[in-house]
Amino acid sequence: MYKIGKEEKLYNLSKVLSEEDCKDIYVLSQPSTCGDLDTNKRFIDLQHRSSRETKIKLAEDDNGFQLDIVNKFEEKYNIRVKPHLHKLVIYSKGDHFKEHVDGPEWYGTVIGILQSNYTGGNLEIAGEHITDAALGGIKFYAFKSNTPHSISKVTSGYRVVIIWKLSDPIGEIALDKIKRTPYLSMSDLFHVIIQVKERQEYIKRRKCKGIKVGKWTRD
């Protein structure tokens, strides 16, 4: 069971959402924004992203979904990550999200597509990713946060997803040390260099494709 919106209405998201549930969630949500990687500012740009979103939290008596996909993510990339329940996003007819990457402060993203009746709204991931099916028919996708992905236009119904962000505990420690002291251990420094190199390689690839980097690319 999950609490959604400021009113904290309770929903069982492991079951098929009715049209009435979806309409209810849509009303409780706020318009989604885009982010500029260069300025770190957020804007509403309906040409690039059209959807609504809201904060979501577990009910006190619920342990939540068992994210087996996180274990698969760790095995694939040989890294320990910590999942954070981030938000719920809902798309209605005509909504979409053009190609983008997620914020660089996260190492990975998990998207759980809930059960509802809709057409269109296909998730397209332009790179390595992992998929997994959970109890109740929820489909999970996991990928590194710098992996370009998009959502095609929803043509009918409501598409509802839960998003988890995966933080890298080692990276968090390293970034905290950078703020406090110029001295880093070799392992911390190596990790930060890898992260920076990945970002530079991503920018290089995007520029080669003729896509302006840093403008409307961040979730």
* Number of E-state strands: 18
Summed over residues and divided by their number, the pLDDT gives a mean of 77
- Name the CATH class of the largest domain: Mainly Beta
Backbone structural class: alpha+beta
Tally of distinct domains: 2
What summary fits the major beta sheet? 7 strands, antiparallel
Name the shape in a single word. Answer: globular
CA gyration radius, whole angstroms? 18 Å
Biggest sheet, spatial arrangement of strands: 3-7-9-18-11-15-14
Could you tell me the CATH topology label of the largest domain. Answer: Jelly Rolls
DSSP summary: helix tally: 4
- Strand residue content: 25-35%
Q: What percentage of residues falls in helices of 4 or more residues?
A: 25-40%
First and last CA, distance: 26 Å
- Order of secondary-structure elements: EEHEEEEEEHEEEEEEEEEEHH
Commentary on this structure:
This protein has 219 residues and is an alpha+beta fold. It is built from four helices and 18 strands. The chain has helices at residues 19-28, 68-77, 169-180, 186-208, and strands spanning 2-4, 9-11, 30-31, 34-35, 42-43, 49-50, 52-54, 56-58, 82-91, 96-100, 108-113, 118-120, 123-125, 130-133, 139-144, 149-151, 154-157, 159-167. A hairpin with a 6-residue loop joins β4 (34-35) and β5 (42-43). α3 packs across α4. It is globular, with a radius of gyration of 18 Å. The chain starts with a strand and ends in an 11-residue tail after the last helix. Residues 177-186 and 211-216 have low confidence and may be disordered.
